[in-house]
Design goal:
single chain; 480 residues; alpha+beta; 3 domains; 13 helices; 23% helix; globular
């Protein structure tokens, strides 16, 4: 019987860098503003499920097993899990592949995420292929990562998991980071655990205002950063990108390269407490009023968990260990989920620094050292995932390339609308604004803001198309 060690957490951190990454550091165009443009719909999908490289997912295998796992498969699964802390039992992996219960493919991919031994990885892939009847080498994504390809297939198929999936997955993940166990313990959480994966870092559970870096390897939030005037922000080149937020007339700019390091800000702007997550994998900076919770509930302190869901960062509240859906601000686990908390969102404008401070001359900007004495590389990610998503996203909406940038807006009626940035820039070179489905988009600095027909501001933020479309699958898409 061949056995191999489960990768230790400290070793895995060298395999995958920070949990979220970004395609490029392109500045937003500075074309002039001028009135309206016509719109058309893009061609619809042909109904086939594809991944980011155009590979068509084959038909899903038929899951004949329902209910509890077969006793023999359960014994093999228990044997495999018992071996995780010492050496992985390849015999149990082979037996699970021969069980005929395709639902077990989910757990095989979860173990594959952490296993480093070539022998064990080969056994896991072989068992997965035997269960599903799929040859992963047909998928070009597998050349980058067999784990990513296998998980993409399962997500695209929406394959059911067995009833004990959450428990087994929690036991596995808590070997890497014990602080994640409370997330998995919440049986009432509105979380699809099938889509939850590890982003390569551990949890940021430092207290609010902790200035020290994460000793064990997390993405450290920046709390209440020191800010300076625009004039004192001359250290940041005008062409470089900022994420701009305006609250009650107070404007603030967050340099992109600093956000790539911290991925989470807790701050006060315009007298309001805000949390600003930045998922670099999604190309998405968002801002939530964390003081929008009812009386009697402590203002959440947002942190990065180190987990992902379909390549989007999983954030949580440090006070209650409640997980929030980063894209919607809805609490989906813990006490805040039980209380029905949904954080109120406000607009984040992606702009160049030069355009932002011209549009908002009284803006402040985070200080050169963040107020913590840190030196920031201007390119901390180094183009790590310029070739596309490096974590599972499943099937994609083919109307745009996966990392095309869009401005996403939700109307007061709950209709989601996306505007392709490249086409917006071309249209707004000829017009002051464009209107589509009751949403009017105009310039703000080098970025974009949105409002309804009566002038009421609508929340908007930029994101990669794959992220916006998978979290808003019914989104409308504007095209010039």
């Amino acid at each position: 019987m061949r056995k191999a060690k489960l990768v230790a957490p400290i070793l895995v951190l060298g395999l995958v860098a920070a949990a979220c990454s970004e395609l490029s550091d392109r500045p937003t165009s500075t074309t002039s503003e001028q009135a309206t443009t016509t719109t058309v719909f893009l061609p619809p999908s042909d109904g086939q499920l594809r991944n980011q490289l155009g590979y068509v997912f084959p038909d899903a295998p038929v899951a004949t097993a329902t209910g509890a796992i077969d006793p023999q498969a359960r014994a093999d699964l228990d044997e495999l899990w018992e071996s995780l802390t010492t050496s992985i039992d390849d015999r149990a992996i082979v037996a699970l592949g021969e069980s005929g219960d395709v639902r077990l493919a989910w757990l095989l991919t979860d173990v594959l995420r952490f296993a480093r031994s070539p022998t064990t990885r080969l056994a896991l892939v072989g068992a997965w292929e035997e269960l599903t009847g799929i040859d992963l080498t047909d998928d070009p994504v597998s050349a980058q990562s067999e784990w990513q390809s296998a998980t993409d297939h399962l997500i695209a198929w929406d394959l059911a998991a067995h009833p004990e999936y959450r428990d087994f997955k929690g036991r596995l993940f808590s070997l890497i980071e014990p602080a994640w166990q409370p997330f998995f313990d919440d049986a009432a959480a509105a979380i699809d655990w099938r889509h939850t994966s590890w982003g390569g870092v551990l949890i940021d559970d430092r207290h609010l205002g902790d200035l020290q870096p994460c000793s064990r390897g997390c993405i450290p939030a920046l709390d209440d950063p020191t800010v300076t005037s625009a004039d004192d922000g001359a250290w940041y080149a005008d062409r470089r990108v900022v994420f701009g937020v305006v609250v009650n007339g107070e404007a603030r700019a967050y340099p992109k390269h600093q956000m790539e390091v911290h991925e989470m800000i807790n701050d006060t702007i315009g007298g309001r407490r805000v949390g600003i997550p930045y998922c670099t994998l999604c190309g998405s900076a968002q801002a939530y009023f964390t003081d929008s919770v009812p009386d009697g509930i402590d203002v959440p302190v947002l942190r990065t968990s180190g987990l992902l869901t379909r390549s989007n960062k999983v954030m949580f509240d440090l006070n209650t260990f409640s997980i929030f859906d980063t894209f919607t601000g809805e609490a989906i686990s813990g006490p805040l989920h039980d209380a029905g908390i949904v954080l109120t969102e406000t607009t984040v404008v992606t702009s160049t620094w030069g355009d932002w401070k011209k549009a908002h001359p009284d803006t402040t900007i985070v200080a050169f050292d963040g107020g913590i004495g840190r030196t920031y590389s201007l390119d901390p990610l180094g183009g790590r995932d310029d070739d596309g998503p490096i974590f599972p996203i499943g099937d994609v909406d083919p109307r745009l390339p996966v990392q095309a940038e869009v401005v996403g807006v939700t109307t007061s009626a709950g209709i989601e609308v996306a505007f392709a940035v490249e086409r917006l820039e071309a249209a707004l070179a000829e017009s002051d604004s464009i209107t589509f489905e009751g949403v009017t988009v105009a310039r703000d600095g080098g970025g974009f803001v949105a409002h309804s027909a009566d002038g009421t501001p609508l929340v908007a933020h930029q994101a990669f198309w794959f992220a916006w479309s998978q979290f808003h699958p019914d989104t409308l898409l504007w095209s010039a």
